[in-house]
Specification:
Number of helices: 9
CATH topology: Uracil-DNA Glycosylase, subunit E
CATH architecture: 3-Layer(aba) Sandwich
Radius of gyration: 17 Å
CATH superfamily: Uracil-DNA glycosylase-like domain
Structural class: alpha/beta
Distance between the termini: 38 Å
Helix content: 40-55%
Order of helices and strands: HEEHHEHEHHEEHHH
Mean pLDDT: 91
Shape: globular
CATH class: Alpha Beta
Number of domains: 1
Strand order of the largest sheet: 1-3-2-4-6-5
Strand content: 5-15%
């Protein structure tokens, strides 16, 4: 449906049965945050706690994400946080291709409605999904890519830091550097909209 609000889209998504994941979920995890956010974070799929609470990044990884945002002066409520898949796959397995395709229209609509300038893909999985090619997060993290007129910055998933070397690791140092790059990308003035250019003599 064209012209509807993010709230209306979320309400419809809550009863989605487009794929098999609807059978095992507790609830749909649509996304959370500022509906007019300039910065969007995109993870892979809800985990156990997200499935129970209906909100992405509510566990330890979410707490780390909050701290990283605070370090660059951005409150969590100013950004939008969501995943490629809205329902938790059984035992946290990777989503199947048909599940991805079933969920893609929901993600495309969220991006269109929120209209972020910068999208941060968290981890290999979300990065490959957005860029449409097999890449290694360690090779592309911190770089800027243009995707559908937006800036995409891949970085490590906070959960990977917690499950790996922890906050004293070199990955954590890299993640902090990537957040500084996110801050710089947001600080750069976007190009003037066509109507603004026309209004200037």
């Amino acid at each position: 449906m064209s012209g509807r609000t993010l709230e209306e889209a979320a309400r419809e998504a809550a009863t989605c049965t487009r794929c098999r994941l609807a059978q095992g979920r507790t609830q749909v995890v649509y996304g959370v945050g500022n509906p007019d956010a300039e910065l969007m974070f995109l993870g892979e799929a809800p985990g156990y706690h997200e499935d129970r609470q209906g909100e992405p990044f509510v566990g330890a990884a979410g707490q780390l994400l909050n701290r990283l945002l605070a370090e660059i002066g951005i409150p969590r409520e100013d950004v939008y946080i969501n995943n490629v898949i809205m329902c938790r796959p059984p035992n946290n397995r990777d989503p199947f291709d048909d599940e991805l395709e079933a969920c893609r229209p929901w993600l495309d609509e969220r991006i269109r409605l929120i209209d972020p300038r910068v999208i941060v893909t968290l981890g290999n999985w979300a990065t490959r999904y957005v860029l449409g090619r097999q890449v290694s997060i360690s090779r592309v993290r911190g770089q800027r890519f243009t995707w559908n007129g937006r800036t995409v910055i891949p970085t490590f998933h906070p959960a990977a830091i917690l499950h790996g070397g922890g906050e004293a690791s070199s990955q954590m140092t890299a993640l902090r550097a990537d957040f500084q790059e996110i801050r710089r990308a947001l600080a750069e003035a976007p190009p003037p909209a066509p109507q603004e250019q026309l209004g200037r003599a």
